[in-house]
Amino acid sequence: MDMISKLFLWVLYSSIAAGILSLIIILIKLIFNDRIGPRFHHALWLLVLIRLLAPVVPESPLSILNLLPAKIQNVIDSKKTAVLDASAFSAEGYDHDISGEVNSYRDHGRNYYENDYVLSFEEYSKDQGKETSAGYALRIASLTWFAGFLSMALFALTAMFKFKGKAIYFRRLAEPEIVSLLEDCLKKLEIKSGIPIYTDESFKSPCISGIIRPRIYLPEGICSKISGKQLMHILLHELVHYKRRDSVYNLLGTIAVMVHWFNPVVWFAAKRMKLLREIASDAYVLEILGEEEIMPYGMTMVNLSRMFFNEHSQLSLISFFETKNQIKRRIHMIKAFKKGSYKISAAAVICCILIGSITLTNAVSSSSITDSGIMTAEKSPDMLIDKAPADEAEFLIDAPLKSYNDINKMAKVAGFKFKVPDFVPSDYNPSAFHIIKAYEGTNAVKIFFDKESGKRLSFAFHASTKDLKGFFKESAKNEYMGNENIQSEINSNEEPLGYGSLKGSILTITAIMADDESSWETTKKYLLWQDEDIFYGIEYIRDIKTPKGDINKRTDLSQEDAMKIAESVKYLPHIKNVDYVPITPEISTEIGQLSIYDKEDLEKAKTLLGFPIKFPLTIPKDIKASYASVGISPDSDIKGNKINYELVMIYKLPNDSLTFVQREGSKIYDHAREKGYFELSIGKADESNKIKTQSLLISGKDVLRYELTYEDKICETDYIWKENGFYCTVSFSPEAENQEEILKSLISEKVINSDTGQ
Fold it and tell me: In this structure, which of 306, 392, 473, 688 has its CB flanked by the most CB atoms within 10 Å?
């Protein structure tokens, strides 16, 4: 959406809020009637003016706008709909869905997921059509509003310049008696600034104009037709307007009418405020003169109304008279005036504060999320889809690096909404989707794009809720400074970058490594930027300078291509030019395995394995599982198309790790139990291939133990036992402690419930 549409949505929301406030004020007036003083009544309508013109107001749970239906808030709320982008309603086609809840998209099958509700492609397309009509209507309404605003602004400017052109011919009143009377009035009101009086036949009523350099204007010859006291009444009234800053309110009211010209409530409010300013000024004058001047002041108004009544007052001038009806109301107020009625009480102030707290605030956003960022180029329509927080993933194994073959699954569990490239250079395709537990405990998304050539080139796209500079620097430190035998020096440099709507920076990290014999250097370049509240980065250069001086390029994008990729990012449902379908089957005979991180993965694993499994997340000494996956079992007959699967779980021990494997077949166990030895390759008549086994009884299970050696040193100790329908293997390194305790725990572990996964 363009800027005009955004402004119109803000204006529309402000008009609705001001309309609600106006109804509240009218209701208060009906209830309390004449018990509300003119100053307090004007202050209430001033709240309407603030609501109409304030560009930003805070959100509050006390806001009366919280009572609006959620759908209306989502459509009109300026803090939400202002984030719509021009592409939302462009004739080029739809790039978004304004439901605000789409979590993921899969090209195959054409399913769009909204939490637990699945929306078919036909339904989605139908909804898109509805939004297109709504977008077209909004654009027409926005342009109509803007045309009306420009017309009124042009009219106001024309009138102002016309008045200024005529003002040079106005005659200044300098008669001593008039000047002396003016000075007395200024003293009464404690006004120190000098305010001149001008006269001209074009004025049909006394008025005052000007905020910085105010002037009082009188109709030509009025001084000869009225008494000195009546002139004093007129001057006091006009000076009170200056004292009360009514010229400022009048200007703001004019602007409000120009901006909200389509709203009749705004016209009513502006007209009402004008009348109240006159009534309040009358009350102020009578407060100074005293109740004994009520009748003379009232007669001044009656006499002047007979001489100079004007149905069409000058724009931006605060005229003494407006309409016949207003004059009647003012005279009625003057007759009912009592000393002290102009003052505003503490109760009235408290009332204004209370009303303001519920009307000068916006409804609390449903997502309660912050706005904006650097590379926003205005907020995008996708925010309405993906601004809401991602579903909180409940991980069984919260691995520091999680690898997925399906971007939709990765997006679902990432913990935040992010955009992905809709442009990549030719021959590049997505190859891996990772979630990395970055610094400060936050998740970072990493997508690899490989080039379909023999050069083995790739680039990486990153997204995170934290600034990625720290993550990249920390990663370089961990990568290059972990070996005590290698000396490392890491340097970084960041330079600002501007490219079209993209505002970001280029981060260069150089690592120089050396041992006793040689040295080599790695240079990485990242394009960094922020879009809304998410930080993005593209590693587009990765050069390794070998000890021979050769440059080995692992990543080789041009900076221009990197910036094009950055400018193309969109939310998943809107991607058109990059194929993010599952990269490979979750598991296959060639490559891939099903990693298990959450309950959904575990359910898939159980179905794939086809036998009951043990899935201990913790073993003795509070050692947690750090990895779990399903892969192809080595006893599979791939040529015969008989595929068996195995479950592999890895636990990090204090000094090393252990591996827990479960397979359906018991061929290896049965063979070793019968022969008394374990064969590395069953069927080979080679004595070196045979490893003697030891039979143990542990927790009621017949367990076979054997050791794998290399150069006469034990490198691994394995334990195998048979369960009901499957068998288990546990592999310990020689340094592993508490082997027997851990083994007993795994043997005693019950199989997980097929329904609950527990």
Answer: 473
Question: How are beta strands 458-464 and 487-499 bridged, if at all?
Answer: unpaired
Q: Which CATH class is domain 594-748?
A: alpha beta
Nearest to 570 by CA among 217, 39, 96, 4: 96
**At 561, which helix (H) or strand (E)?**
helix 559-567
User: What pTM did the predictor assign?
Assistant: 0.48
Encode pLDDT of 703-750 as tens digits.
Answer: 999 888 877 788 889 999 988 878 899 999 888 888 889 999 999 999
Query: What strands, in cross-sheet order, belong to the sheet with 117-120?
Result: 102-106, 111-114, 117-120
- Return all residues near 1 (Cβ < 8 A) that are at least 6 apart: 84, 85, 86, 88, 89, 135, 138, 139, 381
Q: What is the pLDDT of residue 592?
A: 66
Assign domain 168-251+275-338 one CATH number from 3.90.150.10, 3.40.1000.70, 3.30.2010.10, 3.40.50.2000. Answer: 3.30.2010.10
Which of 65-79, 507-521, 557-571, 692-706 is predicted least confidently?
A: 65-79
CA distance 635 to 666: 10
Q: Which two tokens stand for residue 602?
A: 């575990």
Rounded-to-integer distance, Cα 464 and Cα 526, Å: 14
Q: H or E segment at 750?
A: none
Residue 314 CB: number of other CB atoms within 10 A?
Answer: 18
Q: Which residues contact 12 (CB under 8 A, 6 or more apart)?
A: 76, 78
| DSSP secondary structure letter of residue 654 | S
**At 622, which amino acid appears?**
D
By residue count, the chain amounts to 758
What are the residue ranges spanned by the domains of the chain? 168-251+275-338, 392-574, 594-748
Buried b or exposed e, range 140-151, using 16+ CB within 10 angstroms: eebeebbeebee
Report whether 394 contacts 598 (CB < 8 A): yes
